[in-house]
Automatic annotation (TrEMBL):
<protein>
    <recommendedName>
        <fullName>Glutamine--fructose-6-phosphate aminotransferase [isomerizing]</fullName>
        <ecNumber>2.6.1.16</ecNumber>
    </recommendedName>
</protein>
<comment type="function">
    <text>Catalyzes the first step in hexosamine metabolism, converting fructose-6P into glucosamine-6P using glutamine as a nitrogen source.</text>
</comment>
<comment type="subunit">
    <text>Homodimer.</text>
</comment>
<keyword id="KW-0315">Glutamine amidotransferase</keyword>
<keyword id="KW-0677">Repeat</keyword>
<feature type="domain" description="SIS">
    <location>
        <begin position="44"/>
        <end position="184"/>
    </location>
</feature>
<dbReference type="GO" id="GO:0004360">
    <property type="term" value="F:glutamine-fructose-6-phosphate transaminase (isomerizing) activity"/>
</dbReference>
<feature type="domain" description="SIS">
    <location>
        <begin position="217"/>
        <end position="361"/>
    </location>
</feature>
<feature type="active site" description="For Fru-6P isomerization activity">
    <location>
        <position position="366"/>
    </location>
</feature>
<keyword id="KW-0963">Cytoplasm</keyword>
<keyword id="KW-0032">Aminotransferase</keyword>
<keyword id="KW-0808">Transferase</keyword>
Amino acid sequence: DRADKEGWPTFMEKEIHEQPAAIAATLAGRCDADGRLALDEVRIPEAILRGADKVVVVACGTAFYAGLVARYAIEHWCRIPVEVELASEFRYRDPVVTEKTLVVAISQSGETMDTIMAIRHAREQGAKVVAIVNTPGSTISRESDAVLLTHAGPEIAVASTKAFTAQITATYILGLYLAQIRGNKFSDEIQDYMDKLALVPDKVQRILDRAESVRQVARTMTGATSVIYLGRHVGYPVALEGALKLKELCYIHAEGFAAGELKHGPIALIDEGQPVIVVVPTPRRPELHRKVLSNIQEVRTRGARTIVVAEEGDSSVDAYSEVVFRIPPAPTLYLPLLDVVPLQLFACELAGAMGHDVDQPRNLAKSVTVE
Ligand code: G6P
């Protein structure tokens, strides 16, 4: 067993540290000699991809949050509306799905029953389904029109980590491919986006190299009974995922909020010592950065313990933060791949410090094969 973990104390730690390789493997071999994206697996006729009038992402759990991240990228690049829906809700609300709808099902296992039922419903309405799965030959991959594999390798820990970052990477590839086919972007722009994505694995590694600072803070939080996560723009789904990791692993009540919603309720929760983890946008997007900085000030004034994820060199956060986890600069749309890493490390370390089984949290299954 220890051998399978290759020296890591838990599968989760091993898998967190495999993320640079998982992202790189998911990116590998996607371009032809001219630098054009060539997704041979996506065997949906180009005319259909060009004619699609809407993308609907269906997924559960962490994969759903990967879908929320994907919306920002696909809408920005392709100018096509993207809906992201919990697979368990999708078919029950009589969704508007036609033969012009492109459904993207995201699933690590490819066996999540709600996601299977969602794609069956979508195909009955004539929609085409692209599956982003980590398990070749799985039910979802077999029942979809096309498959884009994440190459994260087997994920053993129940709480998903490397599958999540590989899923996000795959949605970026799909988004850029759609932009290429639909003529939204020139090939040199696509190549530039792909080149910058190829730099992400090294940046993730840089964060992992500094993991000890995250671990130290996590070990001081064993008494926490509630943790609030805030994020804006692509940082919002990261906040949701950070909170999910804490619930799953530490059994601590945690909730992610869109930072802009703070004043609409969550701020009432803040009192002395309340831990608040804030994902700060890059200062190169001042319109976003300024607002989140003021959110940190607002909770800090009310006595919150503020733990902040911010870009290297962004000293504006220092005065209002108990700790700052530093992230290398990257294009805004790619930041979730970096921002989530300290939050994974944090939950993993805190769970260990609380004496919980990190790989097999209570009551949870790796793959939920019932509705
Ligand atoms: C379970 C797992 C999660 C996973 C979710 C979706 O809840 O514990 O880690 O995100 O199922 O699973 P899937 O295999 O469809 O990605």
